[in-house]
Amino acid sequence: TNAVIAQNASAYENSRNLFIGVAAGAIALALLLGFALSWSVIGPIQRIDSRLAAIASGDFSGHVDVTNRDELGALAENVNRMNDELRRLYRELETASQHKSDFLANMSHELRTPLNAIIGFSQVLREEMVGEVNEKQAEYLEDILSSGNHLLSLINDVLDLSKVEAGQVELELAPFS
User: Fold this and answer.
1) What's the rounded Cα separation, in Å, for the pair 84 and 63?
2) From the first residue on, what is the mean pLDDT of each consecutive set of 10 residues in the chain (177 residues)?
3) Which of 176, 167, 118, 169 is nearest to 144 (CA)?
4) Sign of the Cα pseudo-torsion (91, 94, 99, 102, in order)
5) What angle do CA 40, 42, 43 make, to 5 degrees?
């Protein structure tokens, strides 16, 4: 009986060691497969994240390369499409901004110069430097001067706003009531 008990104890110990070994191997395999699976998800997400950070900083030159054909691949393709569309819109915005700047530069010369001439000639007529004007003409001259000065003020305000946008106006600190 002692030999059978010893044999059973030995068989039990061998079975227990085999079970522990198989369990440890299964756990190690599960951890290894879990690590590989998680990196197959984390890697593309990190590449997409770095591409989005570059897009947010204004760099539209690259694309994210994800070979997955699952949702991550679709997400990467959408990020690339968004990148291309933002690049196109940014170029159009730069073009529109350049046109606006050209318009404001032309407006300064093309509108202010003739308007200053109108105001100047109206002042000459109002001061009767070239002859007398009747009461109705004087009233009209005042309307012309008032409207011309108002229009010149509006044009100057628009030009001042463009200077603020271009960063050509410095902040002047001063007390005010």
Assistant:
1) 9
2) 90 95 97 90 89 92 85 90 94 90 76 89 90 91 94 84 74 85
3) 118
4) negative
5) 70
For the chain, what is the largest distance between any 2 Cα atoms, rounded to a whole number of angstroms? 146
**Residue-wise pLDDT tens digits, 21-56:** 999 999 999 999 999 988 888 888 899 999 999 999
Write down the H helix ranges in the chain: 2-56, 71-126, 135-165
> What would the two tokens of residue 144 be?
């012309």
**If we measure between CA atoms, which residue out of 37, 34, 32, 66 comes closest to residue 49?**
66
Structure token pair of residue 24: 């440890």
Q: Token pair for residue 164?
A: 């603020």
CA distances from 59 to 11, 19, 22, 51, 87 (A): 68, 56, 52, 9, 9
Rounded distance between C-alpha atoms, residue 145 and residue 15, angstroms: 110
Residues in the chain: 177
Q: Report d(CA 47, CA 43) in Å as an integer.
A: 6
Asked whether 133 and 141 are in contact (CB, 8 A), the reply is yes
Name 10's Cβ contacts closer than 8 Å, sequence gap at least 6. none
Give yes or no for a contact between 65 and 47, defined as CB atoms under 8 angstroms apart. Answer: yes
